[in-house]
Amino acid sequence: MGRTAPFGGRGDRVPGLPGRGGRLIGTRTAWTTVCDGEFFCPGCGGDRNYQRRTGRRRFVFLGVPLLSRGETGPVVECAACQDHFGLDALDHPTTVRLSTMLRDAVHTVVLAVLTTGGSAARAALDAAVTTLRGAGFDDCTEERLGALIDALAADTGRLNDPDCAPGLAIELHEALGPLAPHLAPAGREALLLQGARIALADGPYTPAERDVLATAGCALTIDPDDVARLLVAATRTPR
Ligand SMILES: [Zn+2]
């Protein structure tokens, strides 16, 4: 996390203003804002506005900028704590974005399991509704979920079609891949277990359900041995 400390302190960050506090010799950085947005500030720990800025460093003598010391940055400046960070700070999703990604991931895993190997049994549908509500889909009902699965089947011929597997794998990787690096191992395993419990709700795993869960585990960057261990563990633990 590349914090940058401007030479002259906070007063010197304001472009176009002379240095404050009587710093007569040193380097002053004049910052220019390139763009702004929202990020998760690793300094003050929350979703904050940021400005992406580049700076021009100048050698200052008797308060007068003389020699150019070249460009510096770009940096990300937090609007709240005003600390500077490297651009890699923008790689981390905001907490709002992370919770949306997590919700979408649960939805994708649930649908992937439900649409595998035939129409969803009532028990599986029940389990799926509970899981989706727990993930924040408050208005999810069995009727709506059933209708969605029927629509998916009619639309794509996904049910009972072995050729649909690559498409399903792509969906799982798209929904889970970007999320995986930001989850702790326990969080990734919990997502897989949610899918496993829905698969188990209407009886033992079918080969297609195992395939889908293995794909989900792979997308979540869980080791295949751990996926196998978790799938067995799910058969032993009650919901
Ligand atoms: Zn901050």
UniProtKB/TrEMBL annotation:
Coiled coil: none annotated. Residues 109-230 form the Co-chaperone DjlA N-terminal domain. Residues 1-20 are annotated as: Disordered. It holds the Pfam family TerB. This is Co-chaperone DjlA N-terminal domain-containing protein. It comes from Streptomyces aurantiacus JA 4570.
